[in-house]
Write a structure and sequence with these properties.
It is a single chain. With 148 residues, this protein is an alpha/beta fold. Helix content is 49%, strand content 12%. It has one domain: NAD(P)-binding Rossmann-like Domain (Rossmann fold), CATH 3.40.50.720. It is globular.
Length: 148
């Protein structure tokens, strides 16, 4: 699950683990704006899941890049042997008004919100086809539906 370090993503990944799923907690540990990085965020969530008896590993790949999407899926296959569910939950939120946002700001949003899912699905797809099974979920938030 991408964006699984905080907020709804953390709640989703913890619930899946409680129900017996083996999970990969992917999160860069960025600020809400998408900048900065704290590699310990994903590990903290994975530790919490393991302390409750769940099976979890942490991953801090940047899924907004093709390499990051591929690394996340490769890590999943390496540790668990298959991928049954991909949840694209990573997202960022700018704090500026529309008229103040630059094209670079929009490029950053697009790379995370559109590029991330494309990169992870492209990497997971061949495995899911070979398994003849796999589910993909795309999430959004209130700000994704209605803006801020």
């Amino acid at each position: 699950m991408t964006g699984a370090g905080r907020g709804l993503g953390r709640a989703y990944v913890e619930l899946l683990a409680e129900r017996g799923a083996r999970v990969v907690v992917n999160d860069l540990g960025t600020e809400v704006s998408g900048f900065g990085k704290d590699c310990t965020i994903a590990e903290q969530v994975a530790d919490c899941i393991r302390s409750r008896g769940g099976k979890a590993i942490a991953n801090d790949s940047n899924v907004s890049t093709p390499e990051g999407g591929s690394d996340l899926i490769a890590t999943t296959i390496e540790h668990f042997g298959r991928i049954d569910l991909l949840v694209n939950n990573a997202g960022i939120c700018g704090s500026q008004l529309f008229e103040d946002a630059t094209l670079d700001d929009f490029d950053h949003y697009w790379r995370v919100h559109l590029g991330g899912p494309v990169n992870t699905v492209k990497a997971a797809w061949p495995y899911m086809v070979a398994q003849r099974y796999g589910k993909i979920i795309f999430t959004t938030s209130v700000s994704g539906l209605f803006g801020l």
